[in-house]
Amino acid sequence: MLKPYPADLHIHTCLSPCADEEMNPANILNMAKLMGTKIIGICDHNSAKNVSSVQEAAKHYDITVIPGMEVESAEEAHLLVFFEDLKTMMKWQDYVYGHLPLRKNNPKLFGKQQIVDKDSNVTGEEDLMLISAISATAGEISQKVFDMGGMLVPAHIDRKSYSLLGQLGFIPEGLKINALEISRNISEKEARSKFGISDDYCLIISSDAHRLREMVFQKTFLYIKEPNFFEIKKAFEALEGRRVVIKD
Ligand SMILES: [Zn+2]
Ligand SMILES: [Zn+2]
Fold it and tell me: Region 125-149: what's the mean pLDDT?
């Protein structure tokens, strides 16, 4: 039996310098619980160092945490990347860290990059500046993600900056993607007509929350059997009745 799972697949933690320090596992999970959100994706900029803590903390909630990351390609396009498990995500993180410029973060200028444990204690800070384009193109990123069995979803494509459409003006032919994300500022209908997106592409809306109050923008429902990576993939591909419904 398929059930509609309210999902928000793009949430930042306090590891992202631009996110509020309140974005720790306990607060994120309590807010998701309050909103009735059953599936969340943790997608920090170019790092997944807080994913395990949110996953661990989620064991006490009826909420599934999908390991994710918001990667910035060489073209300065933000791309969401998801993997089935933490192990593969950490391998992916090695790839991203290997392609990040060796620049140190300046917390005073850009914000702290806090690493937290499952109990939301701050255990350290990431030194490398995470808000940077990595030296891999969207095409290279998508190929690598697919080779590793992951999913790729270009982020907030309706935004003028840091989006695939904003940077390139088009979706490169042959680019392997599973779905496209639009921001909470536009409806599915508007986005499809404004950007000429055919029904072949699955659209999702995520909150891209950098602070707790932004998690109220939960609009995507995944009609799936169970809340897991493979079911979500099927929903993106509209396989076996699985589907994505956006509540405008
Ligand atoms: Zn972004
Ligand atoms: Zn984001």
Answer: 97
